Amino acid sequence: MRITTKGQVTIPAAIREKCGLLPHTDVDFVLEGRTVRIARKSGSSKPSRGARLAAHLKGRGDVGMSTDQIMALTRGN
Q: How many domains would you assign to the chain?
């Protein structure tokens, strides 16, 4: 792996997936001697990606069906 002229590196997909580093994840760089460690930023007050998505979708359903009717459709009843 090589650092670009802009100081960027690509974290391999397997490592991103294993660590849950999704786009827009805030991270910290920790210097330990001559080693640099990347870690998910702690204490972030921003809601998670999942929480933002759920908030965005909340109340947007426009189907005139009850929950029981929708569940019956998903179960094939």
A: 1
**Which domain CATH number covers 24?**
2.10.260
pLDDT at 1: 86
Average pLDDT (29-43) is 90
The pTM (predicted TM-score) of the whole model is: 0.49
* Residue 53 covered by a domain: yes
Confirm if 40 and 19 have CB atoms less than 8 A apart.
Answer: yes
Helices (H), the chain: 13-19, 49-57, 67-75
Domain of 4, in residue numbers: 1-58
Report the alpha-carbon angle 36-37-42, nearest 5: 135
